[in-house]
Amino acid sequence: MDLHQYTGIENEEFTPVNYSQIMGHVVRDLVYASDVPDVVVVERQRFRTMGNKNVFEHILRSNILESVLVATILARGRCHVESQSPQKMASVLRTRFAAQPARRTVAVAPPLRPDAVSQLYQFSLQDRRGRVAQKGRRRGRLAATRAVLPRL
């Protein structure tokens, strides 16, 4: 998702003010759009890739966006934020979904503008052979996430 295009902020300069405006739009339009979640789980991003001793600029930007996201959500004070390591998130997702007979998939098209964000998500539940067991639609911007991830 191109955050500059999504938020309408044309200034692509790497500044804290610019990034805080972008995350303000994202939190307002995506996280708190319809329902206020009880818990927001944020997977911490790694600083180094595959043991590399260098830290790349795009990784620093991603980590800054993550920090601003958490700070913006905490400033609203209406939900609890859980920051988890990538290893723990992978472990939780593997153990939660490995024992379930149905695999859930969600297809969400990236929105172009905040005012054009679709409130309708397509989802389908598939069994292990890939046959569609159930098709449906859910309303709400967080419904797709809630359909895929159980409460942690």
TrEMBL record:
Give me the Gene Ontology terms describing cellular component. mitochondrion
GO: which molecular function terms?
Answer: crossed form four-way junction DNA binding; DNA endonuclease activity; flap-structured DNA binding; Y-form DNA binding
Q: Which domain of life is it from?
A: Eukaryota
Q: Where is the Mitochondrial resolvase Ydc2 catalytic domain?
A: 10-92
InterPro entries reported in the protein's UniProt record? Mrs1/Cce1, RNaseH-like_sf, RNaseH_sf, Ydc2_cat
PANTHER family, per the entry: CRUCIFORM CUTTING ENDONUCLEASE 1, MITOCHONDRIAL-RELATED (PTHR28072)
Record protein name field: Mitochondrial resolvase Ydc2 catalytic domain-containing protein
Which organism does this sequence originate in? Answer: Ogataea haglerorum
